[in-house]
Amino acid sequence: MKRDRSQSMVIRENRILLVEHELFGRDFYNLPGGGIEEGETPEQAALRELAEECNVQGRILRPLTIEYKPDLESRVYTFLVEIPEEAEAVKGLDPELSPEDQSIIAVKWLRLDEIAERDRAYLFGAGLMRVPFFHDEVLLWDGEDISYPAKKMV
Length: 154
Known about the structure:
This protein has 154 residues and is of the alpha+beta class. It has three helices and seven strands, in the order E-E-E-E-H-E-E-E-H-H. It starts with a strand and ends in a 15-residue tail after the last helix.
């Protein structure tokens, strides 16, 4: 079986804590998270990855989702996590990568309307609709609008 992943969804004032990565020639945002180490629970991994990538300590409020990766052999666990109100998230490091190979370029608190559609799609898959504010916000969207990005010709 391939390595399972665990991640934290941290919400503050209707903004989501996201890690900006530059990897494989792409720039994208995702939740703080990473691989679950041997002997570690998904909950422990989510909190460890949050500390490594964002330099903050958190507390799990509840699980949000367990989803299968596209390989159908490994899972992604997502937890709703709170951090102390006075905590300031700052860019951390991935200890599995060398200093010159680091992919993390920033951590940011973003609203839904500040996140690219591609990155937002992953957040919905991770259980964003199970967070009351975001559930209520989506219900206010005009249900008749269709939004789909144009395909880029290569």
